[in-house]
Automatic annotation (TrEMBL):
Organism: Candidatus Spyradosoma merdigallinarum
Organism classification: Bacteria, Pseudomonadati, Verrucomicrobiota, Opitutia, Opitutia incertae sedis
Record localization: Cell envelope; Secreted
GO cellular component: cell envelope; extracellular region
Coiled coil (UniProt feature): none
Span of domain Peptidase S6: 22-273
Residues in the signal sequence: 1-21
Name of the molecule in the record: Peptidase S6 domain-containing protein
Chief localization: other
Chain ranges passing through the membrane: none
Biological processes annotated in GO: proteolysis
UniProt keyword list: Secreted, Signal
GO MF terms held by the record: serine-type endopeptidase activity
Annotated InterPro entries: Autotransporter_pectin_lyase_C, Peptidase_S6, Peptidase_S6_dom
Length: 462
């Protein structure tokens, strides 16, 4: 991550990812800010009407609902089982961990970026997504707000929004006389607080601006006020969506105007397009017996410089009914998992080695950069999928869904079963299985030595 900050033409100072972070209010015990960020004590995720007691005896205020912050480490936040969000001016961080602060046994995740701007997931704004090498299984994810209209209605157009921010840089406490006291160096611990409503005149479809005013006192809208300083770039803003009954991420911290105002930014339209780009959908229809073959044909014209390979899924009669993209057949990037050697990555460090560059590419990353996710829709049937070869989707995942298709908006799904089998002992490697509600996935497959089997979703995996 960069060790300095930038001055944009609009007067917004973009925070570097080291140096200082949150400034907390003297009326709130610092331990409360820390407990909130780590969901400890009274601040358990999902807790409601949580009292905030002030050090000067001021009347207590309440947090209506407490977010789950397990999916953020400060600069980076998991917003989808396969994606993290941050700012573009944070350089690539290949290895990331989340959940359980300061725990030695956290899962390590890697991002599949290739160094060089045209090979990163950046929309042109100071916002960025990182694609994970495997699905996240150890955190509770708050997704990105689904649309620009929803973002506006939940944040600066709302009369009483419930918003939080969490970060991990150098920590400060603002004193009654307006001076500040440094409490800890960068990345010592996480702190979280509430954001007040903003001035709609300075917000737009990609940027949310708020002001930290220590003299304003505590309010029911922002009972634990917190600001941001240099070093908090990429830290997330959460907003409560009452209709969906969940918190959603509406931006990441990009910088300050230097007058007590701070900005969060997100390009929601671009983010939605990017995430959807890697999903290949297959409705099985009447094809209840399928054969999954090897990926042997190189995909031409890949704009990212990736060299994906494609293979086919056929019906019982041998007719090709779907094509997928993954790693070349026989290409093995998995490495044996060995906790003692601290190499808990899904794929070999030859593909995700920070600092090992060949020109603008991280060694090996181009082989997985364009891997696709395969999404099966069973529509209430029992579907048998026979592995006729070893198949490796790389960082692509496999989703099993009970709907008839991705566009099925009926709201009802019949119990659906998918059976994975292979008479030849073939394997299916991927970023993980997503087994959705009303689905039972039955597998008799075995994995190669050292590979991971990862599953999320409300369905059953047997």
């Amino acid at each position: 991550m960069r060790k300095h900050f930038f001055i944009a033409a609009c007067g917004l100072t973009l925070f570097g990812a080291s140096a200082s972070a949150g400034t907390m209010h003297w009326k709130v015990d610092v331990q409360l800010y820390r407990d909130l960020a780590e969901n400890k004590g009274i601040f358990k995720a999902g807790a409601t009407n949580v009292p905030v007691v002030y050090t000067d005896g001021s009347p207590e205020q309440y947090l209506a609902v407490v977010p789950d912050f397990s999916a953020t480490n400060g600069p980076f936040t998991i917003v989808d089982p396969q994606w993290t969000a941050t700012v573009a001016h944070n350089n690539t961080v290949v290895t990331q961990t989340f959940s359980e602060v300061a725990s030695a046994d956290r899962i390590r995740y890697s991002t599949a970026e290739i160094r060089g701007t045209s090979f990163r997931y950046v929309p042109g704004l100071d916002f960025s997504l990182g694609r994970l090498d495997k699905i996240a299984t150890d955190v509770n994810i708050a997704p990105l707000v689904s649309s620009i209209d929803e973002y506006k209605s939940l944040t600066y157009q709302a009369s009483d929004p419930l918003m939080f921010r969490v970060g991990s840089g150098t920590q400060y406490l603002v004193n009654p006389d307006g001076t500040t006291t440094k409490l800890a160096g960068a990345y010592s611990f996480l702190t979280a607080g509430t954001l007040p409503n903003s001035n709609p005149g300075v917000c737009d479809s990609t940027k949310f601006v708020w002001k930290f005013d220590a003299s304003a006192g505590m309010t029911d809208l922002s009972p634990m006020p917190i600001s941001s300083e240099a070093g908090d770039s990429g830290s997330p803003g959460y907003v409560w969506n009452a209709e969906n009954g969940r918190f959603e991420v509406f931006g990441v911290l990009v910088g300050t105007y230097g007058d007590g105002r701070y900005a969060l930014q997100c390009d929601l339209d671009w983010a939605n397009r990017l995430q959807n780009r890697f999903d290949d959908h297959f409705s099985v229809g009447e094809n209840t017996t399928l054969h999954w073959g090897a990926a042997t044909e190189r995909v031409a014209g890949a704009t990212s410089g990736a060299f994906n390979y494609k293979g086919a899924i056929s019906d019982a009669a041998g007719n090709v009914v779907f094509e997928y993209q993954g790693l070349e057949s026989g290409k093995k990037l998995w490495k044996e998992i060995d906790v003692d050697k601290d190499n808990w990555y899904a794929y070999d460090t030859g593909a995700f080695a920070q600092g090992k560059e060949s020109g603008m590419h991280l060694v090996g990353v181009e082989e997985v950069y364009e891997n696709r996710n395969v999404l099966f829709y069973g529509g209430g049937k029992t579907v048998e999928i026979n592995m006729d070869a070893d198949v490796d989707l790389g960082i692509g995942s496999v989703t099993f869904d009970a709907r008839a298709s991705k566009d099925d908006a009926s709201g009802t799904t019949a119990p659906t079963t998918f059976v994975l089998r292979s008479e030849g002992g073939h394997t299916l490697d991927s970023a993980g299985f997503i087994v959705n509600e009303n689905v039972t996935l039955v597998s008799s497959l075995t994995g190669a030595k050292g590979t991971e089997w990862r599953k999320i979703g409300a369905g059953t995996f047997e």
